[in-house]
Amino acid sequence: xxxxxxxxxDNVKAQMRKGVLDYCILSILAKKDAYxxxxxxxxxxAKMIVVEGTLYPxxxxxxxxxxxxxxxxxxxxxxxxxxxxxxxxxxxxxxxxDLAWKEIVETMNLLRQx
Amino acid sequence: xxxxxxxxxDNVKAQMRKGVLDYCILSILAKKDAYxxxxxxxxxxAKMIVVEGTLYPxxxxxxxxxxxxxxxxxxxxxxxxxxxxxxxxxxxxxxxxDLAWKEIVETMNLLRQx
DNA sequence: TTTAAATACCTTGTATCGCAAAGTATTATT
DNA sequence: AATAATACTTTGCGATACAAGGTATTTAAA
Lengths: 114, 114
Description:
Two copies of one chain form a homodimer.
Chain A: H1 12-18, H2 21-31, H3 36-45, H4 52-64, E1 68-73, E2 81-86, H5 88-112
Helix pairs in contact in A: 1-5, 2-5
The structure holds a DNA duplex (30 and 30 nucleotides).
């Protein structure tokens, strides 16, 4: 059973307003496959702090929407890692997010002009 | 009783991620006093759709945080209007939001560079 | 051999937000 | 009076972000 954000297109912008984290995650994974802990490190470096309790459900949601897939890989130390990849559908979503983000940035520029 | 976002400064950015509506409202009111229906119209023109059920609680929250004040004014037609004004504290908050927004936009630019 | 440390994934409960929908109130028009 | 137009408010729901705690695997130390 899917939720309200499956029709896509029309409400990408509405969702964008709620937070940019989904956009961040897809952007990161568009460049390179990664696992949760490494994504957290990358976001921390970019000063966009995220904690595990936020990221794991988010990755699961994006996977359930078909934007991501994953595979297990051995780690040099510790338990195996769940590497996520962006899918074709994820790349299309990312393209829509780019447009929505651009519009929001332009709107804010307009609103902030005195 | 205040909530988690009263310490200010540290979490402006975290809040910003949740949505840009607060930023929009303060931006609009920084230019000119306005009442709810006129704010909705202005946001609609800027393609940032907001409905009453979103805006009214938001205005009340910002008023409770001391970012806004209001006064009643007669309307040429219909019931009186509640005109909101941004306060000094609201302007300081807006300045912090400007910084937080700038950082988020820069972060997204970085993350979207292939 | 047990214990601890490091790494990694996952879940639960809470506060908050955005929205649809319904409700209340005032004024002007019919 | 009844209706329309305007404006403010509240309720209930679904979704998000986070703190906190939990589970599991591997390696190193005691």
